Amino acid sequence: MSAPIARPPSGGLSVDGLGKRYGDKVALHDMTFHIQPGEIFGFVGSNGAGKSTTMRIILGVLAADTGRVLLDDKPVDLAIRRRIGYMPEERGLYPKMKVGQQLEYLAELHGMSRAEAHDRVQHWVSRLGVGERIDDAVGDLSLGNQQRVQLAAALVADPAVLVLDEPFSGLDPVAVDVMSDVLKEKAADGVPVMFSSHQLDLVQRICHRVGIIARGEMRAIGTVDDLRARGNVRLEVAGTQPPGWADGLPGVVEAAYRPGGAALTLDATADDQQILHAALSTGAVHGFSPSRPDLTELFREVVSA
């Protein structure tokens, strides 16, 4: 896990107090976060939590009822939108158009000359492993290769910020590694990178910080280590204790017993030495291992609260 980056006084992508309603339904409420230059930010939540709505507002596809979006301290307008590389969850490529022609066309829409567009397309199709399919129609590609081309479309104009909605969906492990490396390279160049994903093990592995949203609100934000430190400690005890030996101990909020051991969930008041003493007094102890919840467990806890 990469070390957290100290927030600079300015720059990057800022989402400030976004609100959005559809009639009586609140889609977003006071959505606020900042993505620093060179930071990879994981944006996670259940289906319908507001992730795609937030991203579409950043792009200007949707208008917010309240709040604002800034890139490098400037409100996002048409000129700035051209500097954003966007990958939608619903793929937006023309299926009957050839890969190379389509990517060059998109690059030229961002203001590149034909020669510049051609060079950038050649670079990205090669980098993303679809160079041999450059003259094929997009609709003839596998879903995984279509995903690679969609990422190339987000990257081809050398964006100042990347906003990617479920970029890893449907990719095989090799393609996931390639895409992860590309995002890390763009971040190393100082680009703020934001992506949503349901693959929380991947988010935990490559993101500097993570924001967890539920029902249109940001419920938790921070580094993975910081977020995990907020959760309850899990304690694995291996031994010969009888079932029920930890019931009623201070700080034990849940206990699951099985042959040869128990899994205990502890809150901040628990004393592990007191628990160890209780375990030793009722049987032999062969293992005693505390751990923090991973991002998947934390996610479940946050969105269900």
From TrEMBL:
Gene3D superfamilies: P-loop containing nucleotide triphosphate hydrolases. InterPro entries: AAA+_ATPase, ABC_transporter-like_ATP-bd, ABC_transporter-like_CS, DrrA1/2-like_C, P-loop_NTPase. It comes from the Bacteria. GO terms for molecular function: ATP binding; ATP hydrolysis activity. Residues 13-240 form the ABC transporter domain. Keywords: ATP-binding, Nucleotide-binding, Transport. Signal peptide: none annotated. Pfam families: ABC_tran (PF00005), DrrA1-3_C (PF13732). Belongs to the ABC transporter superfamily. This is ABC-2 type transport system ATP-binding protein. The lineage of its organism: Bacteria, Bacillati, Actinomycetota, Actinomycetes, Mycobacteriales.
